[in-house]
Amino acid sequence: MKPVHFHIEAQDGEARAGVLTTRRGQIETPVFMPVGTAGTVKGIRFEELESADLDARIILGNTYHLWLRPGIDVIRSAGGLHRFIGWDRALLTDSGGFQVWSLGALRKITEEGTEFRSHVDGSLKFLSPEVSMEVQAALGSDIVMAFDECAPGKAGHEETERSMNLTTRWTKRSKDAFDRLQSEDADTGRREVEGLSGRQALFGIVQGASHLDLRRRSLEQTVEIGFDGYAIGGLSVGEEKSVMFDVIDDVAPRMPKDKPRYLMGVGTPEDLVEAVARGIDMFDCVLPTRNGRTGQAFTSRGKLNIKNAQWTNDSRPLDESCRCSVCRRHSRAYVRHLYMSGEMLAGILLTHHNLAFFLDTMRGVRQSIRSGDFPKFRREFTGRLDANGE
Amino acid sequence: MKPVHFHIEAQDGEARAGVLTTRRGQIETPVFMPVGTAGTVKGIRFEELESADLDARIILGNTYHLWLRPGIDVIRSAGGLHRFIGWDRALLTDSGGFQVWSLGALRKITEEGTEFRSHVDGSLKFLSPEVSMEVQAALGSDIVMAFDECAPGKAGHEETERSMNLTTRWTKRSKDAFDRLQSEDADTGRREVEGLSGRQALFGIVQGASHLDLRRRSLEQTVEIGFDGYAIGGLSVGEEKSVMFDVIDDVAPRMPKDKPRYLMGVGTPEDLVEAVARGIDMFDCVLPTRNGRTGQAFTSRGKLNIKNAQWTNDSRPLDESCRCSVCRRHSRAYVRHLYMSGEMLAGILLTHHNLAFFLDTMRGVRQSIRSGDFPKFRREFTGRLDANGE
Question: Does B96 touch chain A (CB under 8 A)?
Answer without folding.
Answer: no
